[in-house]
Design goal:
Blueprint: H1 7-18, E1 23-27, E2 33-34, E3 49-53, E4 59-65, H2 74-80, E5 83-89, E6 96-101, H3 108-117, E7 121-129, E8 132-139, H4 173-189, H5 202-206, H6 210-224, H7 230-233, H8 239-249
Antiparallel strand pairs: 1-2, 1-3, 4-5, 4-7, 5-6, 7-8
Helix pairs in contact: 4-6, 4-8
Length: 250
């Protein structure tokens, strides 16, 4: 079996990023572009490809996920600011998952809705992450969802501080937990919180879209510091069941 070495392609790609240039590989048979670059064309299998400069490419966001709680990288956020995990579609390129920086995280629900209603055009951005430059994305031009963070250097503590003991729930904590879960559901599903009760069936009364469920449990984790796995969430039907699960974890 013939073996091919990917090292020259990987090296060329990252060397170009150091100079601020974003490269891909274009198939000379069908014109399909591989980004990130790969040895052969994934559309037709042809090995006859060439380098193309993609520095000025533009793409459209197809879907977005929040990145706080179970779905984010706290160290990346501390260094680069809030971001969304997005799928980007560039003409001639297979859709790929990446990070969208310079966003107003508090407007995630509005952003997610906008993605389904109109084209959100994004452009690539080369940043320094650890000891290598990488490609992320930002919204192209002015946007109500764009927010450049004012970042301060991250200082590492010499010795980790002891975590304070978790306080016992207050007597009225159950109501607060229920309201928080309802607020998280309202934001994720884009409805008025007043229309949600403990008996609300999430899939029948709100939506059967799994993406919105993921948003809800991510917000619950972020606000209440309680983790609910996606597989667990798939077995819960009503808001009341989610509240019970959260109280069980507190």
């Amino acid at each position: 079996m013939t073996k091919f070495d990917l090292k020259p392609i990987v090296k060329t790609y990252y060397d170009a990023l150091e100079e601020g240039t974003i490269l891909g590989r274009k198939c000379l048979r069908c014109g399909h572009i591989e980004f990130p670059p790969f040895l052969c064309c994934n559309a037709c299998g042809c090995l006859d490809t060439e380098w193309v400069d993609l520095t000025n490419m533009r793409g459209v966001v197809k879907q977005a996920l929040p990145t706080k709680g179970a779905f984010g990288d706290p160290e990346f956020r501390a260094k680069h600011g809030d971001y969304f995990a997005v799928e980007v579609d560039v003409p001639g390129v297979d859709p790929f998952n990446t990070s969208l920086l310079h966003v107003d995280y508090d407007r995630y629900a509005d952003f997610d809705k906008a993605v389904s209603e109109r084209e959100i055009v994004v452009k690539p951005l080369v940043i320094q992450d650890e000891d290598v430059k990488v490609v992320v994305w930002e919204i192209d031009g002015e946007s109500e969802f764009k927010k450049i963070p004012d970042l301060k250097p991250v200082q590492k503590a010499e010795t980790p501080a002891a975590k304070p003991a978790k306080a016992a729930p207050q007597a009225d904590a159950a109501d607060e937990v229920a309201q928080t879960v309802i607020d998280c559901a309202a934001g994720a599903y884009g409805v008025d919180a007043a229309s949600i009760t403990l008996d609300t069936d999430i899939r029948e009364d709100l939506s059967n879209e799994s993406m919105k469920m993921i948003v809800m449990i991510s917000e619950i984790e972020d606000r209440l510091q309680v983790t609910i796995e996606i597989q667990e969430a798939s077995l819960l039907n009503t808001i009341g069941e989610f509240v019970a699960k959260v109280k069980e974890r507190l």
